[in-house]
Inverse folding.
């Protein structure tokens, strides 16, 4: 016997239109926000036309009650009233496409199986990326072609810190990209660079989560995903601050004990790769004079410096006496730059006002203080082993959470710029590289200009063709450069602040969804993708990888007592 | 061949008739049913789950007609009635509801049933003939049909004995039962009590009743015990009859049981009394009854739509 999915009938007290209509819900059924329903009406001369849609409002009221207080009379058994429950449906699809309203009186059914897939356009997606579960427990798919650059690219995730679980959703999405099979033969080559901005959430991606419950595993299974940790993850942490040049290179300490490579740049990298500009990217450095000066200094520096003959980490410069003098550390480099600028040589300063020059020098001093330890000089052994090598693993996690703001910007800016440059040189969009970056509003703020913002904008606008795909997270998309948001094919919203939810950036959410966004619980997101005309509420499963040390499942090799287990 | 022609006026105007009920004509009133004492009797408190069922009906003249045959021209009408039961349960509910549609023709002319297509439904009008040729006769007959349906409903409800008390709107003209079935008369068009006894009505407090008095005890089949009771107190500016209703029960139940029942009714009904701002006929139009009437009226369908459908049908018949 076929299962009965009837939930009610199209009601006739409100006008039914092709795009929105109301359902009177039967007394023995219910509809909730986000439910997918469909109704078939007979259209003269056409035949049956199926209108599918998503419930975006549900109401209940007493019919026959005149006054608010009638509810008490009804409760006391005095005044008979009729309970009416209705649901408002926004149309997602009409098949065949005749833009006619569903006929009042027609039976409305909950969409299941193929009908649900059709209502949500999953049937037309070539490559389905599991992106969570809808309210009815069914899988929700993102059209992968709108993620990998084929037809669109970039994901923008907004929401209040702590409740919106932006990072969790971004990592879930990434996990799904790598493990759902959607990549096909491109799987081994596709990479991701993930910046760990806050806490240590992302430092255990390769460890199973000991708190994963059987029902969580079922949810992964329902989405066709294994409930595993990520495989092939490289962890990079900044080199520890305060190391002497001769000290062995160790990473900043984190609760992850092993398998972290310390990263740093050398003095020569700064000179040859023109990294100076990424040290001048404070919100207050939006001053184009200083940026111009930084660019000029980079060129002059590159020209003035020779590679040191024996130490690959450093450079040397010609002296007045005709000899060569090594610049052995970042401090020495800063001194050299300062001296050149203060000498007033126009090759370095151009026509910059003295005020700009001294502002530049002040900032250079600040950069030296906050990120000087990331630039190592003479005596560094094997600097190449400490350069972030994102090609080596499927996922590369770059930890910046304990760095000063200025140092964070430097790491993000120089890493992304380098990647962009490499991809631009190769001229092909394969292999695809995903960049997961939280606090996008810091790197690409709506107002002002900075070299990082420029790179991010380039990625937003051209990354699709270069195979660089941004998964950006921010508390408030109203504070992020508009063109980056506009270029994101997939927009995701977690719990929003009420004031933020009212802003025009969330125009893709209708009135109910905006209100809904203010109430979203952790683990629930509203996902908007180009093929579906409405944002859909989805939930995603608890991470199957550890998100902190306490969740790391003890593996036999980690467990000192494993040998004593009773057999 | 019976020709039906329409009276184009809306049935709410002019030729429509005020008359509804056969006027209570009995002069046989006995005052000593509960002995000689004549004073207010307090109602009996009923348990919380005391189950009251209210039966009511409404009727509507869809359009007034003239029936013509061989030079004869008599008043007729197409009308509808609906009856139903409102239950004073928690939550309160209304069921069952029955709707009937009638084609009533005077002068002894015998109409056939007609069917009318309205809003995708087929409405069936059952033809019936009355001998009277007065303009008011068809309306009175429609009222009769409705009362008859109420009586059928009351009889079946009584047989089910689901309710502790069945309250029937209007006098018990058409139904009599040896049990808790009470006629409930909202509007007092005549006073049955002699003036010296009638003054008691002024002093009745809400929930109090008068002693029983017999009505038509000498008329076979119409023997009833009746009493007045107060549902609610009126305002100072309201007439003293505000909040007074008359109830009656079949004399079959016996005087003693009738007195006990009357006290229970006096105790049970005041809680259903409607408020002035809620119902224009407050407090006598009880909450469940008011709501039931609204629902029944609704069930007759949209008046304009039905009337238009009847007109369309007559148009086709006249061109057939």
């Amino acid at each position: 016997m076929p299962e009965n999915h009837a939930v009610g009938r199209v009601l006739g007290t409100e006008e039914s239109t092709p795009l929105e209509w109301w359902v009177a819900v039967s007394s023995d059924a219910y509809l909730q926000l986000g439910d997918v329903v469909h109704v078939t009406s007979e259209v003269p001369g056409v035949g049956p036309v199926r209108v599918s849609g998503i419930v975006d409002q549900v109401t209940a009221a007493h019919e026959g009650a005149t006054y608010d207080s009638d509810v008490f009379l009804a409760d006391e058994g005095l005044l008979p009233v009729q309970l009416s429950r209705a649901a408002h449906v926004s149309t997602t699809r009409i098949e065949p496409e005749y833009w006619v309203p569903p006929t009042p009186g027609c039976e409305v059914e909950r969409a299941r199986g193929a009908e649900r897939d059709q209502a949500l356009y999953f049937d037309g997606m070539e490559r389905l990326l599991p992106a969570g579960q809808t309210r009815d427990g069914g899988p929700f798919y993102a059209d992968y072609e709108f993620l990998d650059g084929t037809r669109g690219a970039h994901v923008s995730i907004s929401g209040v810190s702590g409740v919106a679980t932006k990072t969790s959703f971004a990592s879930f999405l990434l996990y799904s990209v790598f493990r759902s099979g959607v990549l096909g033969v491109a799987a081994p080559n596709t990479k991701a660079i993930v910046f760990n901005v806050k806490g240590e959430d992302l430092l255990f991606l390769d460890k199973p989560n000991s708190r994963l419950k059987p029902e969580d595993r079922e949810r992964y299974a329902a989405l066709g995903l294994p409930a595993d940790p990520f495989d092939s993850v490289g962890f990079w942490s900044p080199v520890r601050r305060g190391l002497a040049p001769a000290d062995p290179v160790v990473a900043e300490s984190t609760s992850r004990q092993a398998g972290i490579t310390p990263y740093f740049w050398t003095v020569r990298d700064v000179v040859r790769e023109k990294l100076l500009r990424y040290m001048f990217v404070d919100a207050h450095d939006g001053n184009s004079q200083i940026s111009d000066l930084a660019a000029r200094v980079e060129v002059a520096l590159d020209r003035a410096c020779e590679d040191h003959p024996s130490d690959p980490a450093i450079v040397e410069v010609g002296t007045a006496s005709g000899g060569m003098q090594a610049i052995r550390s970042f401090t020495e480099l800063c001194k050299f730059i300062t001296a050149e600028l203060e000498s007033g040589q126009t090759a370095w300063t151009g026509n910059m006002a003295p005020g700009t020059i001294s502002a530049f020098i002040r900032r250079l001093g600040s950069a030296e203080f906050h990120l000087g330890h990331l630039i190592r000089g003479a005596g560094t052994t094997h600097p190449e082993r400490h350069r972030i090598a994102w090609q080596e693993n499927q996922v590369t996690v770059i930890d910046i959470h304990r760095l000063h703001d200025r140092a964070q910007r430097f790491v993000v800016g120089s890493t992304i710029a380098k990647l962009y440059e490499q991809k631009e040189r190769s001229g092909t969009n394969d292999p695809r590289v995903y960049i997961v970056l939280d606090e996008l509003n810091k790197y690409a703020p709506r107002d002002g200009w900075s070299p990082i913002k420029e790179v991010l904008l380039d990625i937003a606008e051209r990354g699709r063709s270069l195979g660089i795909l941004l998964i950006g997270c921010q508390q408030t998309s109203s504070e992020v450069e508009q063109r980056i948001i506009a270029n994101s094919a997939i927009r995701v919203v977690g719990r929003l602040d009420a004031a933020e939810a009212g802003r025009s950036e969330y125009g893709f959410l209708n009135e109910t969804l905006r209100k809904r966004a203010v109430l979203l619980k952790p683990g629930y997101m509203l996902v908007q993708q180009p093929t579906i005309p409405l944002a859909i509420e989805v939930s995603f499963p608890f991470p199957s990888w550890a998100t902190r040390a306490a969740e790391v499942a003890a593996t036999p090799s980690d467990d000192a007592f494993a040998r004593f287990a009773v057999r | 061949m019976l020709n039906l022609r329409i009276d184009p006026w809306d049935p709410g105007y002019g030729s429509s008739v005020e008359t509804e009920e056969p006027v209570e004509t009995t002069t046989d009133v006995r005052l000593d049913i509960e002995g000689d004492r004549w004073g207010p009797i307090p109602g009996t408190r009923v348990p919380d789950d005391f189950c009251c069922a209210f039966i009511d009906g409404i009727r509507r003249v869809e359009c007034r007609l003239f029936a013509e045959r061989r030079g004869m021209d008599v008043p007729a009408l197409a009308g509808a009635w609906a009856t139903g039961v409102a239950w004073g349960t928690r939550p309160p509910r209304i069921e069952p509801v029955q709707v009937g549609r009638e084609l009533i023709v005077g002068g002894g002319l015998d109409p056939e049933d007609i069917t009318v297509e309205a809003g995708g439904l087929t409405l069936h009008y059952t033809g019936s003939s009355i001998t009277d040729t007065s303009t008011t006769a068809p309306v009175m007959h429609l009222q009769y049909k409705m009362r008859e349906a109420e009586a059928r409903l009351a009889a079946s409800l009584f047989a089910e004995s689901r309710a502790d008390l069945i309250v029937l709107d209007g006098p018990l003209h058409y139904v009599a039962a040896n049990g808790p079935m009470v006629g409930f008369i909202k509007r007092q068009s005549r006073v049955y009590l002699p003036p010296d006894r009638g003054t008691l009505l002024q002093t009745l407090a809400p929930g109090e009743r008068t002693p029983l008095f017999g009505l038509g005890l000498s008329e076979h089949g119409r023997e009833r015990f009746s009493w007045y009771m107060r549902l609610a107190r009126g305002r100072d500016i309201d007439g003293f009859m505000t909040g007074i209703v008359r109830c009656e029960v079949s004399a079959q139940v016996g005087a003693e049981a009738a007195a006990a029942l009357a006290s229970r009714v006096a105790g049970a009904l005041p809680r259903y009394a409607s408020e002035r701002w809620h119902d224009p006929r407050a407090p006598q139009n009880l909450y469940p009854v008011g709501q039931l009437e609204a629902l029944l009226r609704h069930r007759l369908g949209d008046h304009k739509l039905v009337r238009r459908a009847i007109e369309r049908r007559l148009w086709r018949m006249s061109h057939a």
